[in-house]
Amino acid sequence: MATLSGLEAVDFVPTLITPKSAVTKATGSITLYEPPSCLADQKSLSPWSLLVRAALKVKSIPYHTSLVRISTLPSFGPSIGAPPTGSNADGSPKYTFPIIKDDHHAHGEKGTGTVVADSLAILHYLDKTYPSSHGLFPPPTRATPDASSLVTLIAHTLGHGSPLYNTLLAPEWKRHMPLAEYDYWEAQLKKGGGLLGHAVDPATWRAPEEGSAEFEAVIQKTMVGLGQILQALGNNEWFAEGHNPTYPDFALLAHLEMVRLWRPEVLERLFASGAKDGVDGERLRRYLTSGEKLVVFVPEEKGTLS
After folding, report:
1. Span 251-266, mean pLDDT?
2. Which CATH architecture has domain 147-294?
3. What is the pLDDT of residues 148-163, one digit of tens each?
4. Which of 34, 106, 134, 290 could form a disulfide with 44 if both were Cys (CB 3.0 to 4.6 A apart)?
5. Where along the chain do its domains lie?
6. pLDDT in tens, 219-232
7. What is the pTM of this model?
8. Domain GST N-terminal, which positions (predicted)?
9. Residues near 145 by beta carbon (within 8 Å), at least 6 away in sequence
10. Mean pLDDT to the nearest integer, 68-83
11. Mean pLDDT of the chain
12. Residue 174 has pLDDT above 60, yes or no
């Protein structure tokens, strides 16, 4: 357990993989700050952290994870120099995950020391600071929507605020959040903050059972967006034909992985969709299988710059 300015942060040490003394710390790599869960390795459930991880892997930039409890973020963010990503209802600065701090030795003995917050800002920073043949954004094309529109569609279909997330995933929060965060999340849910943006009673909030009418109604709503996403993908391996995975791919892979981490049976139901649903579920499965290595949680990756 490490502390910074008296705030709890966990520098994840993969003791079953590598001895503690051999783990690369902040010097020599990028630190990816993200919230922990109670899943194996405390892996983050945030699709935006998964998205940044995919970008770091495509760029082959060495990084390691530092897990920070979300309840400490309002103080932890400014303590490391993270910029706010918005404002709270009371006008105070709002800090969000993911955050990176760049101490990679490619930029001198101590790195740039730059701290960047917000997944899109992080991708722009990585593309500018680490130019390579593996650009993180697709070239403009008339055949598909622009990258930002695609990512918005993906987030609205599978992410926070979507029927799928709000109804089928988020009510399972007690299965995934660290016990030390229960009081924080219960307070957030009661006042309408956190996972949903509207108030619920944590004591009675439940997700519908698999196969129920309510469950299937949410699945069918999700199919509308998935159909549009797969139409944009077409027969290409990735959204940008002839290119490596880029921003929209990171977003789709990250959100599919997020669904799998929250509730695997929901992802399997999406994969089981067919012509009657207007979505080729097997196509979706193959897509995730092709790119899942980009979003799988690895506490530390040495990488080689491309």
Report:
1. 97
2. Up-down Bundle (1.20)
3. 999 999 999 999 999 9
4. 34
5. 2-139, 147-294
6. 999 999 999 999 99
7. 0.86
8. 36-134
9. 153, 232
10. 95
11. 85
12. yes
pLDDT at 146 over 90: no
Q: Output the pLDDT for position 18.
A: 25
pLDDT at 278 (0 to 100): 85
The answer to whether domain 2-139 and domain 147-294 are alike in fold is no
The arrangement of secondary structure in 2-139, i.e. its CATH architecture, is 3-Layer(aba) Sandwich (3.40)
- Which pLDDT band, with edges at 50, 70 and 90, does 85 fall under? very high
Q: Are 40 and 89 in contact (CB under 8 A)?
A: no
Distance set, CA 157 to CA 99, 148, 165, 218, 256 (Å):
24, 14, 9, 11, 11
Beta 63-68 vs 300-301: how paired, if at all?
antiparallel
Query: What whole-number distance in Å separates Cα of residue 262 and Cα of residue 169?
Result: 6
Q: Cβ neighbours of residue 137 under 8 Å, at least 6 residues apart?
A: 123, 127, 147, 246, 247
Report cis status (omega within 30 of 0) of the bond before 98.
yes
What is the spatial distance between Cα 42 and Cα 36, in angstroms, rounded to a whole number? 5
- Other C-beta atoms closer than 10 Å to the C-beta of 235 total 6
